[in-house]
Specification:
Blueprint (H helix, E strand, L loop, with lengths): L3 E11 L4 E9 L2 E6 L5 E6 L4 E4 L1 E6 L15 H10 L2 E9 L6 H12 L6 E2 L2 E3 L5 H13 L4 E5 L9 H14 L2 E5 L3 H13 L6 H5 L3 H18 L3 E3 L5 H12 L4 E5 L2 H4 L24 H13 L4 E2 L36 H10 L6 H15 L17 E11 L18 E11 L2 E5 L2 E2 L14 H6 L6
Parallel strand pairs: 1-4, 1-5, 6-7, 7-8, 7-9, 9-10, 10-11, 11-12, 12-13, 13-14
Antiparallel strand pairs: 1-2, 2-3, 5-15, 15-16, 16-17, 17-18
Length: about 475
């Protein structure tokens, strides 16, 4: 009988704190030994000359989400998790959306049904709170947090999703009592609606107007307000998809006051600018997302946030809609005004190659920082650590083997999502995950899919209280 099911031999292993050469021994889906010259396995992978890293965790992904009348999101769980897998991810965290007037538990049942048997990666769900009723606040959310749905998202924008400050306070208070984590999309909806009216009166309705109706001030003010609300309730908070230095300053000032705040940014704020929304023949619609990309100076500020620790998380905010589709970016109303272009861009597969190439290979960050931003901090923030997000004895054998010498030019034809474009088309990257292992099962082997749909499973998350009770860590 073999000692191990699988050995990963001779690679350079990196965690969020260390880099070292060793072999990994894997048995029954877990890492059971880290050492030298391990033998006795059914399969041995030669990782010499490559990096052996924890599988990526993308904690901000939208798939199979209701998107409004006549609009259909491009990715369901099958294509979304397949694309994530080829990008070096072994866990994704999509959002279950509570539609107004519908119990969250009912929405979750339907969402689980969509995921069941269709996933190439493991999944864990966030809950979007859009209707903060007394029943939801007093009964549903506490019960769901105890059942492993330990993170809630609230919006300060989008008329059909935004919560009032009073409802945000109530949601934050549930998080304080239950140990759940609250994510906040920070943009001032009233200011946006004012600017939209001004633009429409002037006849400015092209995709480029999406950026100018959501200026930095709209995000900065909402960020300050969200942090103030969290300070009042005295609860940690996650500020998602930060796009600029002024919002970063709000995070830094709140931390200086003692507020526990986790910052997140995304590839679009490092690689795109508002000028991309100026594309000919309405092609700027491909880049419509919220907050919108800013300018080169904002890109540099976001890189500074990655380098200095303002940002703890690097997520894709994968939210895919097809461009050449009447149910996507070029829907009939969207062709008349930016207001009706679906917000969101694809990016789950390219998130980590972009960060690796632009960050590690260009000397902005080291390997441990990459691992923290790619996986470890996500697991710690959302209650999946140490089962996920690290290479350690007893952790799930979720591993991405990276070839730092592999150079590619991003082309959508080579990707695996169900959108019909990539916003990063033509960008050259160095470094790519060539082998991906999920729970000890080889899913991608030297760039080829060998694992099966349905290999991924739902994973419940721990609240802060349950993490403390089991002596696990959080950032």
């Amino acid at each position: 009988m073999s000692d191990f099911d699988l050995i990963v031999r001779g690679g350079t292993i990196a965690t969020a704190s260390d880099v070292f050469k060793a072999d990994l021994g894997i048995l029954d889906g877990r890492i059971v030994q880290i050492g030298e010259n391990l033998t006795g396995a059914g399969r041995i992978i030669d990782a010499c000359g490559k990096y052996v890293l924890p599988g990526g965790i993308d904690s901000h992904v939208h798939v199979a989400q209701p998107s409004g009348e006549g609009i259909v999101m491009a990715d369901g769980f099958e294509s979304g998790t397949l694309s994530a897998l080829f990008g070096g991810n072994t866990t994704v965290m999509p959002f279950c959306l509570q539609e107004k007037g519908r119990p969250l538990r009912e929405a979750l049942t339907a969402y689980h049904a969509l995921a069941e048997g269709n996933c190439y990666t493991d999944v864990s769900f966030h809950l979007i709170v859009s209707d903060a009723s007394d029943a939801l606040i007093g009964q549903e959310l506490p019960a769901l947090a105890a059942d492993g749905y330990a993170s809630f998202k609230v919006f300060m924008t989008y008329e059909d999703l935004r919560l009032s400050d009073a409802d945000i306070l109530k949601t934050l208070d549930v998080a304080r009592e239950t140990g759940a984590t609250v994510m906040v999309h920070c943009e001032n909806e009233d200011a946006i609606r004012f600017l939209i009216s001004r633009h429409e009166r002037a006849g400015e309705v092209s995709p480029r107007a999406h950026a100018s109706t959501r200026p930095v001030a709209v995000e900065r003010e909402a960020t300050h307000r969200a942090l103030s609300l969290a300070e009042i309730v005295d609860v940690p908070i996650v500020i998602v998809h930060v796009s600029n230095g002024e919002a970063m300053e709000e995070i830094a000032r709140a931390r200086a006051r003692g507020v526990k705040v986790i910052g997140e940014t995304c590839p679009q704020y490092l690689m795109l600018t508002a000028d991309d929304l100026d594309g000919m023949d309405w092609e700027g619609a491909k880049f419509v997302c919220s907050p919108p990309p800013r300018d080169k100076a904002a890109q540099e500020e976001c890189w500074r946030g990655i380098e200095t620790g303002v940002f703890d998380l690097f997520s894709s905010d994968h939210c895919p809609f097809r461009y050449a589709d009447e149910q996507g970016k070029r829907n009939p109303r969207g062709l008349k005004s930016f207001r009706h272009i679906p917000n969101g861009i694809p990016g789950v597969e390219t998130r980590l190659p972009i960060l690796f190439s632009e960050g590690v290979m260009k000397g902005r960050i080291d390997l441990p920082r990459f691992v923290a931003l790619a996986a470890t901090n996500h697991a710690k923030t959302y209650g999946l650590y140490p089962q996920k997000g690290t290479i350690a004895i007893g952790s799930d054998a979720d591993i991405a083997i990276w070839d730092p010498s592999e150079s590619r030019t991003i082309r959508h034809v080579d990707l695996h999502d169900a959108a019909d474009y990539s916003p990063y088309e033509g960008i050259a990257v160095t470094g790519w995950p060539t082998t991906v292992i999920l729970g000890g099962r080889i899913m991608v082997d030297e760039g080829k899919l060998v694992g099966e749909k349905g290999a991924g499973a739902y994973r419940p998350a721990k609240t802060r209280q349950s993490r403390h009770n089991t002596n696990t860590m959080e950032i």
